[in-house]
Amino acid sequence: MLSDSKTPLVGIVMGSRSDWETMRPASEKLDALGVAHEVRVVSAHRTPDVLFSYAAEAQSRGLRAIIAGAGGAAHLPGMLAAKTSVPVLGVPVQSRALNGLDSLLSIVQMPAGIPVATFAIGVAGSANAALFAASMLAHDHPAIAEALEAFRQQQTDAVLQHDDPRV
Ligand code: RP5
């Protein structure tokens, strides 16, 4: 993808290709804000060795945040956080069987000492994880700070310009 061409600052990973529709808004938001990022499927259960090497190399490859989406027995964010001190932002995928409550509880209930910042279930959490990652980077990247401010202003303007819900 386009954003892979520059050294990625953010890694977006997910447990399965089936998580992509949930994680797509994270990638789109980072693209819109000009945040270089990569997107990979990394499964805690089906490719555990890839998970370990991804976490082990994250810091030295320049990643400053990892957005990790997973559903059901959602061990990916927690296991990444166990193996790297790069901040992990967990996104619970809305599972078919239990609507994502299983994912949320799997991700949010981390033991003290291994933090995962946990976001809302589904696409809102995915978009917000990207905005949060951009905020984390803004201090050291003025262009990202500017893009974030512009986004927030546009969002506010859009609400104010259409504040009558009947039209
Ligand atoms: C998790 O299992 C993935 O994150 C996904 O949300 C869920 C189901 O995966 P698939 O069976 O669709 O590959 O590991």
From TrEMBL:
Keyword RNA-binding: no
Pfam families in UniProt: AIRC
SMART domains assigned: AIRC
Pathway(s) per entry: Purine metabolism; IMP biosynthesis via de novo pathway; 5-amino-1-(5-phospho-D-ribosyl)imidazole-4-carboxylate from 5-amino-1-(5-phospho-D-ribosyl)imidazole (N5-CAIR route): step 2/2
Annotated substrate binding sites: S16, D19, R46
Ranges of residues in domain PurE: 8-159
Keywords: Isomerase, Lyase, Purine biosynthesis
Catalytic reaction equation(s): 5-carboxyamino-1-(5-phospho-D-ribosyl)imidazole + H(+) = 5-amino-1-(5-phospho-D-ribosyl)imidazole-4-carboxylate
Enzyme class, spelled out: isomerase
Origin: domain of life: Bacteria
InterPro entries, A to Z: PurE_ClassI, PurE_dom, PurE_prokaryotes
Documented EC number(s): 5.4.99.18
Molecular function GO terms recorded: 5-(carboxyamino)imidazole ribonucleotide mutase activity; phosphoribosylaminoimidazole carboxylase activity
Keyword Lyase included in the entry's annotation: yes
HAMAP family listed in its UniProt record: PurE_classI
UniProt record similarity statement: Belongs to the AIR carboxylase family. Class I subfamily.
Function: Catalyzes the conversion of N5-carboxyaminoimidazole ribonucleotide (N5-CAIR) to 4-carboxy-5-aminoimidazole ribonucleotide (CAIR).
Protein's recorded name: N5-carboxyaminoimidazole ribonucleotide mutase
